[in-house]
User: Fold this.
Amino acid sequence: MTTPLHSTPTTPTDYLVDDSRFGKPEHGWRRTLFSVIFESESRLGRLFDLILIAAIMTSVAVVILDSVQAIHQQWGHVFSVLEWVFTGLFTLEYIGRLACVKRPLRYALSFYGVIDLLALLPTFMVALAPEFAYLIDVRILRLLRVFRIFKLSRYSEEYRSLVSAVAASRRKITVFVGFVMLVVLVMGTLMYVVEGPVHGFTSIPVAIYWAISTMATVGFGDLVPKTDLGRAIASVMMLLGWGVLAVPTGIVTAEMARRGPDDELLPVAGRGILAMAPPQPAVPPRRLTPAARRRALAQHRRGGR
Assistant:
C-alpha cells in the first residue's frame, strides 16, 4: 500500500499549527496544555475552541456597538468591563500558547502570534500609558481590537483552502494586476490629453484615478468626460471593467476546483495550445492473430476443467 504524497490533516488547527515548526512537548503538563489549546481531538480541546470562538465574536461585537455614540453613552461602563474581561481571557490564552510550545519566540513572530498580540495591545497601551492618548487617538487603538476576528481563521477549513488557492495563483494574479496597471496608465494618460484641465483632468495622476474608479465600475461622478471622444474612451473603460473583475475570480475558482475537497492536487488533462503538456495519443488496442486467439481459447478451456 503506497503512501500519498500530500497527507492532509484531520483538523484545521493541526494544519495551521505545525508541530515541527513550534515544537510539541513530549510529555508533562505542557503536552496536555498543547493538546487542549492547539488540537481539537479531545473533549477539552473542542470545548476550548468553542469558548474561544464565542469570546472572539462577542468581543468584536462589543467593539462595534461601542463605536455607536448613543449606545456608548448608555452602556459604555458595561462595555469597559467586558473589554477588560475579554482582554484578560485573551492574555491568558496568549501566555498559554507561548508556555506550551518549545519555540515560543517563533510562535510569537508567526502570523497568528502577531494577531494574538494585536488583540491585547490596545487595552494595555491606553491603561499603562495614558499619555498615548495625546499622541494617538484612543479610537484608533480601539479599532485594532477588530483584529481579533482574524483569530477565527485558525478554526476554518475553508479559509485554509482559500489561502492555498490564492497562494498557488499568485503568479497569474500578479501578471493580471500588471496588465490592469498598464491599461489604467495608458487610458488615463489618453483621457488627460483628450479632456485636459478644462474638464477637471488637471494632471495625469488625476486621470489615472478616474481610470481606476471607472474600470472598477465604481464611478464616483466627481470626474466626468465632456467631449464625445472622452465619453467613447469612458465607455470602453466601463465595458473593459466588467471583464476585468471576473478574471481573478476565475483564476482562484479554477485553482480551488483543481485542488479538490481535501486540498490535494487533482490530475488535470492537458487541453488546447496553452496546456502545460501535450495530451498523449490514445494507444490503439492490440489485435489478436488467429493463432493467439486459438491458444487463448484452449487455455481458457483447460482452466475451466
Remarks:
- DSSP finds 15 helices and no strands in the chain.
- Residues 1-19, 133-139, 266-279 have pLDDT under 50 and may be disordered.
